[in-house]
Every structure is written in structure tokens, then in C-alpha cells.
Design goal:
The protein is of the alpha/beta class. It is built from 18 helices and 13 strands. The protein has a six-stranded mixed sheet, sandwiched between helices. The structure holds guanosine-5'-triphosphate (GTP) and magnesium ion (MG). Guanosine-5'-triphosphate is lined by residues 298, 300-306, 319-326, 349, 412-413, 415-416, 443-445. Its cofactor is Mg(2+). GO terms for molecular function: GTP binding; metal ion binding; ribosome binding. This is Hflx-type G domain-containing protein. It is found in: Cytoplasm; Plastid, Chloroplast.
Amino acid sequence: MPGMISFALLWSMVMSVGHVHAFTLIPGPHCLSKRCADLPLGQIGRSKIPFQRPRGRWSDGPKRFSSLNMNLFGSETITTKKGDRAYIVGADIKRNRYKTLESSWEVDDSLDELQRLCETAGLVVLGREFQSMQNPSPSTFIGAGKVEALAKTVKTLEIDVVVFDDELSPAQGRNIQTILGEDVRVLDRTMLILQIFAQRARTREAKLQVQAAQMKYMMPRLQYFMTEGAGMEARGGGGGGGKNLKGMGESQIEADKRLFRKQLQNVEKEMEEVKQQREVYRTKRRERDNLPIIAIVGYTNAGKSTMLNKLCGSEEVYADDLLFATLDPTTRKLRLPGGKEVLVSDTVGFIQKLPTKLVSSFRATLEEIEDASLILHVVDAASPLAQQQIWSVQNIIEELMLEDTPQILVLNKMDACDKEKIESPAWLRIHERVIPECTVATSAKSGDGLAELLDIVEEALLQLSVMIECLLPYSASDLLAEIHKVGTIIQEDFQESGTRVVAYVPPSLRNKLEKYSTTGTR
Ligand SMILES: Nc1nc2c(ncn2[C@@H]2O[C@H](COP(=O)(O)OP(=O)(O)OP(=O)(O)O)[C@@H](O)[C@H]2O)c(=O)[nH]1
Ligand SMILES: [Mg+2]
């Protein structure tokens, strides 16, 4: 996955230059966790998308391909219709790469979530099944016999769409489609998520991101059509060179390929332009405000947007009982109780089994997290799967190499949850192993716990600050004003040659003050 590697590299470079580890923490992260660990239990407890499905199907041959090609990728067409009858299929894979001892999702829980995703996309789920297996079948994902049985069920229930809970390879998708027949559409979790993203995308950038993700998802599948996608490997059939392509001239195939590549290039070029504009905006914002960024991160539907709205006294960010209600990052200014200002950023929700390459398509959102001084990891504590969700988010944070950004675990929806369970030793142990910092309980809906959360944020930022001692000439009054705005003044004397200041400031401001330093950083 070369794209991912370069993304990861880029990420690690960014992280290794201007982040918290380049600076001395005062008094250090351990203090933070200790202090929060001492907070009393009580109300405030302690504690990584569809391709637009072709109008044809995976089994559609080249007859349709060249005509499909024109509108497959560029359009906003939703490939499933509201009210389509759906059937969902999972597999309990013993060697699941997403499964670890602590984070295992039961297959039924995962299918429950898939059902919610289907409903979010407007599908009506009429049934489900799963197969327990050591490894998925390379040709049909679940066993070929199981797919044959599925074909009968699909007919009986008059199913329009079959959704698999795991990403299907091009060969698996095509083979399953062949067995189920032309009247059924076959989707996988990734395609479904992409489809929901396509429905939700509002800004030009979000739309471009979804489009690029869809095209990248499509690429190997088209490649498969064009090379070996003829057949039924499961039945020993198949033929290299692609029966799919029979009757289709060589030049037509090449034209299709070229067209596809061109479309992808266009989208990427447009994204690059948007990215550059955003970069200019971000740099300006950084220079102008120099405010610390707090990123709200968490599983989808955890209450992140509700929290941003409540914290910032706005109702502007769309929050709803839906998966992936938020796609575009939103940043708001917030004044902390001590008077300091910060920027709070709402982000796209995470979900288990989300391919990292898909997460990385949503760079805009991720860049806000990349800039963050602090991550608020918001959890729907009322969900019976809260612990698995914490782990899934944590895994994505690690895949994005952001695990070193300090985190506060925010157990949200306390109004709806069993407090005894949350405060049980097993729960606390989970947090201690996952979260390096501290935990706070909140209800974004009622506002309970948010004052305490802000106190903790304020203290965390202070601990992430660095102490400076400098002599600022009177001509640098703008810098003095900035120290007042974002820092904590310890001492301030007006001398003949300028203002002598001792203060705690965010690391970014320390860099600007370096040339006026009298002692350097302590
Ligand atoms: N009972 C209760 N419900 C909450 C609380 N916070 C949020 N909700 C509800 O949870 C649902 C999801 O809230 P959102 O704020 O949209 O969640 P999100 O994390 O932004 O979700 P995505 O953008 O989809 O990732 C909404 O119906 C909210 O009203 C809370 O503290 N208590
Ligand atoms: Mg949201």
C-alpha cells in the first residue's frame, strides 16, 4: 500500500518536528495522570467508502464497462435505493486481523453495527447470517456451499442487496455475484461506508475526498475485470485474460483505462488545490491565533458534535443519532474558565474494520488532529460495546501514529449509563492500559461534567506549556499581547529596554519568543 506508507512517513515527519515531544513538559505527563487519578469518583468519575456502485454489477462484463466507465466515478449516484431489501452476512474468523484479545468484537455485535450502517444508508435489513471459520475462503469469502444456500435465501426473501461485513477482494466479490445472480447487488462494509460518506459529504473537499476514496477502491476491481476477472475460481473456472473482456476491442480497453486514470488524476489535482488553499488558511490561523488545538476524536455516534456544540455554545454542528453524521471537520474558538482561548475541532467518527487507507483519504479531518495539542477521546459509555469501541479508536490512533499526543478519555452519555459498571475495577483497568492521561465522565446532552472537563483541559494545557523568560522590546507589543492571550504570566516588569516577562506558553509561541529569551527554556 504505497499510498499509506508515504502518508505514514509524512505523518511521522510532522510529528517528529513540531510536537510536544520536542519540548520539556512542565511538570510532565505523569503528573497529569496522577492528578486526574486522584479525582473523586462520583458524578464526575475518575477514573480509519462505495465506489459508486456501477449501475451494473461485479459480474457485468465489458459490454457495460466502457459505457459505465463514464459515469461510475464522477457521479454522486447512490448505488442502493432507499427502501432496498437487504440481507447481511458475516464471518467469525478465528484469525481475524482486527481481533486482539482485548478488543474482540463478537460477530453478532459487528453485524448489529453493520445493520445500523445499512439503515443509515436507507436499506431495510430483512435477515442475517454468519459462518465460523478459521480463515476466509480466497474465492468466495464464506464457503462456496454457504453462498449457494445464500442464493436460495436471497430469492425467497426477494433481496435487492447483500452486504458483507468484511472487505471482499475483487475475486471474492465477483464470484459471489456470479452465484447470487444478476438481480442482486453485492456490497461490502467498505463500499457501504463509502456510500454513506457520499450521501453525507457537503463541502467540495469532502466530496472530492469521497470520490478519490471510491476511485482508489475501484482501481483493483477494474484491474481485475480487465485481466483475470472472467470466472468462477471457486469452481475451478476462470480464465486469465478475462472472459469479461471478450468481444471488447483492445483499443476500447485501453481507452477505458486511460479515461479512468485521467479521472483519478483530475480528482487528485483538484484535491491538491483545495489542500493548498487550506494549508494557507491553516498557516495564517496558526500565525494569527497561535491557539492550542483540542481535537475531539472518537467512535461514530459517541456524541462528539453534541459536545462541541455544548462546549462552544453553538448549535451549528449537525449532530444526530446516525452513524457518520459528521464528515467535515469543524473548528470553533472556546474560552477556558481561566480566560485562555483554544480551538476545538470536531472530527469524523471512527469505526471498527475501517481500512486505514480509507481513513487516510480523509486528510482534512486528520490534519486537524495532527495539529492538536490534546485529544479528547469521546466514548459512548452507555453502549454495551464501549470498551471494544475504545480499543478500535485506539488502534486507529496508533495506525495514524498519533498515540503520543496526550489524550483525555471522556466517558460521555453518563445520563444514560450504568454508573456502577463504569466505575468497576475492570473498566478502570481498561482505561489505564489504553489511555496515558486521565478520564472524566460527562453528559454532552445535559452539560454535566463539562465544567470539570474544561478544568482538566486547562490543566493539561498548562502542563504541556513551557516556561519562558524573556525581555521584549516595546516594539514587540503584539507578542506581549499574545503571551497574555494564550499564556500564563508569572512575572511582568516594565524596564527601560522593554518588558521582562516570565510565563508559561504553548510550545509554538516559545519558538517565536526564542530570540528575546534571557535564559532559554527551563
Ligand atoms: N443520552 C445522551 N445522548 C447523547 C449525549 N451526547 C450525544 N448524545 C446523542 O447521541 C447521538 C449522536 O450524537 P453526535 O453528537 O451526532 O455524535 P458524533 O460522535 O458526532 O457522531 P458522528 O458524527 O456520527 O461520528 C445524538 O442523538 C445525540 O443527541 C449524551 O450525553 N447523552
Ligand atoms: Mg459528529
